[in-house]
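tokens incoming
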């Protein structure tokens, strides 16, 4: 059995405290009696038996795109669902969840989902993320806890209900274990694949998407210019990449404002005949030398799942 790192323990403890605050408000007692102990035991029992909850903390955050853009996407999806007699679509991938809801999850070993019906769209997230998924979701959100096995499936079932129509999923992303558990939880429904159709829908870019892509392209171009200006003999690969990433992140932060979270922007600088033999070779401490081959990859990604790539020798 593996050991739990201090960071993991801290995250789990923070999640537990967050959930406890949402489930109960325990008043402080000057003396500890049998009645107060019984009350706290009941509250702890309720806390541990809570499989999912709604956590609407704060206000909704700005969206990357307009509400009309998300409505357009959802309308196209619901048209497909109607044609295939799908009562609910259960997405599990980052790309489809972001495309239809604006929310970009960070898995860290936990599963996430977006459940779309003809009337609602609901993201399914882990308690460790608190109220952030609700704030970033164009729609509703349900949070599952870690205290019992398969609370994730239980939360999906809470949204879907005892459905008799088909359930659409991404078979190119959903693993067999999740497929089996979902089938067992909702035995009245048949699970069908809609990954191809949704992929084709995402390929057709709207004017709003093109505008965001242009921001990413400009950030990548800036990263290339910063790379060229930073390359000097004796500078290490990671030092060049740091300057490139900082420049791209600053540009996107200024141009996207609060419409997007500040996520990953990254760069690879591969130098010399050895480290430049693969496009995805990680950064090293190798110092640039005169006459080196320099390979550059710029990836500005702080755009709610949208990103651009600049690759050059």
């Amino acid at each position: 059995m593996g050991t739990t790192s201090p960071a993991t323990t801290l995250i789990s403890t923070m999640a537990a405290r967050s959930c406890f605050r949402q489930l109960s408000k325990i008043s402080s007692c000057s003396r500890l009696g049998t009645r107060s102990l019984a009350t706290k035991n009941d509250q702890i029992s309720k806390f541990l038996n809570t499989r999912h909850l709604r956590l609407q903390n704060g206000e909704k955050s700005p969206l990357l795109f307009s509400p009309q853009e998300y409505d357009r996407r959802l309308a196209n999806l619901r048209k497909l669902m109607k044609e295939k007699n799908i009562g609910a679509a259960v997405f599990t991938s980052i790309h489809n969840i972001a495309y239809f809801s604006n929310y970009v999850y960070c898995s860290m070993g936990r599963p996430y989902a977006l459940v779309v019906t003809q009337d609602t769209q609901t993201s399914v997230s882990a308690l460790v993320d608190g109220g952030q998924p609700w704030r970033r979701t164009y729609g509703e959100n349900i949070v599952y806890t870690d205290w019992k096995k398969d609370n994730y499936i239980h939360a999906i079932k809470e949204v879907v209900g005892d459905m008799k129509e088909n359930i659409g999923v991404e078979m190119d992303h959903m693993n067999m274990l999740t497929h089996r558990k979902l089938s067992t939880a909702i035995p009245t429904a048949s699970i069908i694949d809609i990954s191809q159709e949704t992929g084709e829908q995402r390929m057709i870019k709207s004017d709003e998407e093109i505008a965001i892509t242009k921001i990413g392209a400009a950030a990548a171009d800036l990263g290339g210019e910063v790379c060229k200006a930073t390359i000097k003999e004796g500078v290490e690969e990671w030092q060049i990449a740091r300057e490139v990433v900082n420049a791209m992140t600053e540009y996107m932060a200024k141009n996207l404002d609060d419409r997007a979270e500040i996520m990953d922007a990254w760069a690879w600088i591969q130098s010399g005949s050895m480290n430049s033999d693969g496009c995805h070779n990680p950064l090293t401490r190798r110092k640039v030398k005169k006459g080196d081959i320099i390979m550059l990859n710029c990836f500005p990604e702080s755009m709610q799942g949208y990103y651009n790539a600049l690759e050059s020798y």
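note: The chain is about 45% helix and 15% strand.
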